Amino acid sequence: MRILFVIQGEGRGHLTQALSLRQKLVGEGHEVVGVLVGKSPARRLPAFFLDKIGVPVYPFESPNFLPTAKNKQVNLVASIVYNLVRLPKYLLSVRFINRMIRETEADVVVNFYELLTGFTYFLFRPKALMICIAHQYLFLHPDFKFPDENRLELAMLRFFTRLTAIGAAKKLALSFRKMREYGPEGLIVVPPLLRHEVLDIKPKQGEYLFGYLLNSGFSEEIIDWHRAHPEQELHFFWDRKTETAEFKVDERLSFHQLDDLLFLYYMSGAKAYATTAGFESVCEAMYLGKPILMVPTHIEQACNAYDAALSGAGIVADCFDLDRLSELSKNHSGNMSFRHWVKQADWLILREFRPDLLFHELPAVGLRRHATNWVARLGRFLPI
């Protein structure tokens, strides 16, 4: 089949998932004909992704969250205003996505949680079948446990997730553990998409702490902690465009630009891992048996962190308290059931791309799922 990827390009998570899925699909004889990446002008696509994906990459402007002035937490009000002002540009992006689906003659569009893909299918109804894949689709599962957060924000998160999947034939929800399929949402739970480079690594127990900062403003917290603990070696990755490949504060603290092989090298030898709770890197650290400190910056990451903690990944905090991480590393034991779950990813995910099932069974299944879903929704309001 001819397959087109459309990726939400904030952070590294969906990008590395796309690299992994392409490896699996090409191995089965499918052709990935192109990659569209939604991003903001403030972000740049990591060089490792452009080097490794192996097909033409077409960026387009897409909605995104704005950080606060210190580049740490998400500024929700500013983000809404910013994205409303840029609405005309996003409409052009929707037309661009639709045109690329036609020009590439794609049989299937794989949507990695990009909002504008859902809008494209709502406005233009392309002929190509759409499969959505991301961990966020697990938020639509009735058995998913949410943290004690603002109910309105959780409802908005679930609504946003549904918007990304308008017109989808199925949703593949990446999960830390096995969960049942949920037909009314067209939801199929599958293992995380880890690349062969991760699966082939033999981890070792080093003496340094390692981390990833989605928002580089958190580097201030790392530097402050380092001043109080100058003996502890630290390696952190960030996305600060103005810095060189390696910004060395001193012999014990370095900040690195995103590089996939270097990232995995440092992760595999680390004592423990600190992150802003993106799903993909948490999965990588869990697979390699590293204890994790998760510092979520917005509601989605808070849900990821809570779910990961329930799965034995580590602890959740409001700041980069590396003292707690160091203490955790002394008696942490890895989750072997998670490793077994990850190793089932190939056949569980590739099964959903079988042409005989995708083009013959899914339309009818999808119709039944949508009908069941809407009947259930109407039932909440009818006096029956």
TrEMBL record:
What SUPFAM superfamilies does the entry give?
A: UDP-Glycosyltransferase/glycogen phosphorylase
Under the heading Pfam families, the entry gives: Glyco_trans_1_3 (PF13528)
Molecular-function GO terms, alphabetical: glycosyltransferase activity
Instruction: State the name under which the record lists this protein.
Output: Glycosyltransferase
**Could you tell me which species this protein originates from?**
Candidatus Parabacteroides intestinipullorum
